[in-house]
Amino acid sequence: MTTFQLDHTVGSIVRDHPALSRLFEQVKVDYCCGGQKTLDEACRQRGIDPQQFLTQLEDYATLEPAPEINLAELSLTELADHIERIHHVYLHEELPRLEKMVMKVAAVHGEKEPRLEQIKHIFLALSAELTTHLMKEEQVLFPMIRQLEAIDTLPSFHCGTVVNPITRMSVEHDGAGVALAQLRYLTDDFTPPEWACNTYRALLDALLTFEQDMHQHIHKENNILFPQAVLLERQKAE
Asked: Does position 66 have pLDDT exceeding 80, yes or no?
């Protein structure tokens, strides 16, 4: 039987047991940007009984299917490739589609549901920030991480150390997390009103999928890729 402890971090639990992310999503415990919090701390902040949730985790883990890929066992290069292939490609394809949908729904139904203008503003700003964020990862940070792993000696980076861009990316992840929380709040947990048209309903469904993908994306970087890259650089500097 899998044993969890209340002093385990939320991020480490999802790192080792990816399927448990569904349970954290259900109770709205942040395992990506908030992945460094202990299980006890995260539960108390959400008003959840820590011991009761710990029992739920252990029960759920007994039913957990074996992951197709153990992300913690991938090399840094393989993990960066995985993130680009799964999450970056998704965002490059989905962001333009969601931009069109949110603008259309806000234009058609904004008078009846004033929050749609806020939703549009927040999403368009987030989309622009993510587009720049992806470019910085693909053109700067990920190549640095691949180079760090590829050679035996410590590379000389233009920004000094891999910690600098990682710190910046982590700050941007926090900003994205705030925007995602705002979108969830303004859409009543992505619940369409009874009068919503098919496009409105499709938008909310797509935003829910977008949120879930972003949580997984940020988790893989904040709690697996970035710490391992920092550790490797530190080891090579010794």
From this structure: no
**Is it the case that residue 70 has pLDDT exceeding 90?**
no
The yes-or-no verdict on residue 68 having pLDDT over 70 is no
Same domain, 106 and 190: yes
Whole-prediction pTM: 0.84
Q: Are 31 and 24 in contact, with CB atoms under 8 Å apart?
A: yes
- Quick check: is 5 in a domain? no
| 54 CB neighbour count, 10 Å cutoff | 18
C-alpha–C-alpha distance, residues 145 and 135, integer Å: 15
Per the CB < 8 A criterion, the answer to whether 237 and 121 are in contact is no
Cα-Cα-Cα-Cα torsion 199, 125, 142, 78, nearest 10 degrees, comes to -20
Domain shared by 36 and 132, yes or no:
no
92 lies in the same domain as 37: no
Shared domain for 202 and 84, answered yes or no, is yes
Per the structure, how many domains does the chain have?
2
Locate 195 and state its tokens. 């009068």
Cα–Cα distance for residue pair 213/152, rounded to 1 Å = 34
Task: Return the DSSP state at 9.
Answer: B
* Residue 201, H or E segment: helix 198-220
Per-position DSSP letters for 52-69, written without gaps between them: HHHHHHHHHHHTPPPPSS
For residue 3, give the DSSP letter.
-
Residue 72: band (very low, low, confident or very high) from pLDDT cuts 50, 70, 90 = confident
Residue 2 lies in a domain: no
Q: What is the pLDDT of residue 1?
A: 47
